[in-house]
Design goal:
alpha+beta; 3-stranded antiparallel beta sheet; 5 helices; globular; hydrolase activity; hydrolase; Cell Wall Hydrolase
Length: 172
């Protein structure tokens, strides 16, 4: 290759690598064999399979918990933790027409995609539920759930769930 063509090629290759590294919004990492099914289970039973955004947000919370020292360090450990997700999440049957969307969303989160508004949220509840706690800082409502961070009360700037937003995540 001529020097100028080689430099151009090197620059384009570097841009392509940076672009690929930025896809998904989060760091990719190796996952255990059962992580895909566990992620699917969390998304299937918690997002009501209502929207891709809702599933990606649930998956983002799972991954925020995996990265935290306060929760188990694996997807299955987080999803299977007692009283944290839907009753029977690890043993109930999954199926139906939503499964291809659930699988795609679970794979995408495991490959690094995160909901762009989820931030550090590690908690959520049904959007219709109204809690009376003063330490819930809401960041997002999507897919039938309200997502929040637990903060000291004086640092809560959004004490009520925002309006629902859909259509913010990648593939639809």
């Amino acid at each position: 290759m001529k020097p100028q063509r080689q430099t151009t090629f090197s620059i384009l290759a570097g841009v392509a690598l940076l672009t690929l590294a930025a896809c998904g919004g989060g760091p990719a990492r190796r996952h255990a064999a059962g992580d895909l099914e566990c992620m699917e289970r969390a998304m299937y039973f918690e997002s009501i399979r209502s929207s891709r955004d809702g599933m990606i947000a649930v998956g983002s919370v799972v991954m925020n918990r995996v990265e935290s020292h306060e929760f188990p360090g694996s997807v299955c450990g987080v999803v299977g933790q007692k009283n944290q997700f839907a009753p029977g999440v690890m043993r109930r049957d999954m199926g139906g027409s939503a499964m291809p969307m659930v699988r795609e969303a679970a794979l995408s989160v495991l490959q690094g995609e995160r909901h762009p508004l989820i931030g550090n949220a590690q908690f959520f509840h049904a959007a219709t539920y109204r809690a009376s706690y003063n330490n819930m800082h809401y960041v997002l409502t999507t897919g039938g759930n309200a997502f929040y961070e637990k903060r000291r009360p004086e640092y809560v700037t959004r004490p009520t769930p925002p309006g629902a937003l859909e259509g913010l995540t990648g593939r639809r």
